[in-house]
């Protein structure tokens, strides 16, 4: 087994601090300079349509808001708290029951104040996404209340 | 398709102002704990404060995805009750603007049906915590619906 990369360890540490993501049993699949991929396992508790067993859009949105937000870890030299300004999700086709959903995201423009991020949610094939997502995240900087300590915490364990 | 007896159930739920049996049918509704109540002719949705919905441990604040999910579900329930769709409304797209942090408190939402076409509806959703004039998020969703066949005259 290879040691997880510092970025991967930092991402896992970050995700483990988000209680609702723990409830959904989300995990980090990949984290590198190109972006991040998270996995949302299928579970009966996140079903939105009891007739088809399809996962509710809210759980997909949670996966994607988390993935886009965590993509900032891949693009910034140091940890910064980056709350979501806006998020748009286009549903390409309904997801299938009993299958995990993967959420991948990458930052495509980093400016002084905001970061533009896009991604997609898919089940089997990244080229056949169930949803396309685009969002804008605000850079609050390193010195925001609690942010510095939280950043150090992520780093300390990652290194 | 929504069977006729489910339509009857929906009308009854609205007439009695008791939406709990409807919410129990949707697992995701129970997961986040959404509640719905009648407010005159309108519907008021509530997401009671729950530690399980927290996504930002620093403030702490509700996960942005849960706020979005709460608002999307509110819009879908609103359509189920107010549009006589022959099928369960299916989400086409969803766009949300976050205006303030959703703190670890009760959150409320109200919907506005801006346009109901034959196939697509446009719904706006506003969410707030203490003060309805200080929303924490606004959102807009398009849903695909199916027009009920016009009864023969």
Automatic annotation (TrEMBL), chain B:
Organism ancestry: Bacteria, Pseudomonadati, Pseudomonadota, Gammaproteobacteria, Pseudomonadales
Record InterPro entries: HotDog_dom_sf, Thioestr_dom
Ranges for domain Thioesterase: 62-134
Gene source species: Pseudomonas putida
Domain of life from the UniProt record: Bacteria
GO MF: thiolester hydrolase activity
Protein name as annotated: Acyl-coenzyme A thioesterase PaaI-like protein
Pfam name, any one: 4HBT
């Amino acid at each position: 087994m290879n040691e997880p990369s510092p970025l991967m360890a930092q991402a896992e540490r970050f995700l483990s601090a988000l209680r609702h993501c723990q409830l959904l049993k989300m995990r980090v699949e990949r984290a590198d300079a190109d972006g991040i991929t998270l996995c949302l396992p299928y579970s009966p508790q996140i079903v939105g349509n009891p007739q088809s067993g399809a996962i509710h859009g809210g759980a997909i949105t949670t996966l994607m808001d988390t993935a886009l937000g965590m993509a900032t870890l891949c693009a910034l030299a140091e940890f910064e708290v980056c709350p979501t300004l806006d998020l748009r999700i286009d549903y390409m086709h309904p997801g299938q029951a009993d299958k995990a959903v993967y959420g991948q995201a990458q930052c495509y423009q980093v400016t002084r104040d905001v970061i533009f991020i896009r991604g997609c949610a898919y089940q089997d094939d990244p080229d056949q996404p169930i949803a396309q997502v685009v969002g804008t995240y605000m850079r609050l900087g390193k010195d925001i209340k609690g942010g510095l300590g939280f950043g150090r915490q992520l780093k300390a364990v990652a290194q | 398709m929504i069977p006729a007896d489910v339509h009857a159930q929906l009308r009854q739920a609205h007439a009695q102002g008791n939406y709990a049996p409807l919410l129990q049918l949707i697992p995701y509704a129970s997961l986040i704990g959404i509640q719905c109540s009648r407010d005159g002719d309108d519907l008021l949705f509530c997401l009671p404060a729950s530690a399980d919905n927290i996504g930002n441990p620093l403030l702490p604040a509700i996960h942005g995805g849960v706020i979005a999910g709460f608002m999307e579900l509110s819009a879908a329930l609103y359509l189920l009750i107010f549009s006589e769709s022959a099928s369960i409304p299916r989400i086409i797209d969803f766009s949300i603007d976050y205006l303030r942090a959703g703190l670890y408190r009760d959150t409320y939402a109200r919907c506005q049906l801006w346009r109901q076409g034959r196939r697509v509806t446009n719904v706006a959703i506003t969410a707030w915590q203490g003060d309805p004039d200080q929303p924490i998020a606004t959102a807009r969703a398009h849903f695909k619906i199916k027009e009920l066949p016009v009864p023969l005259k």
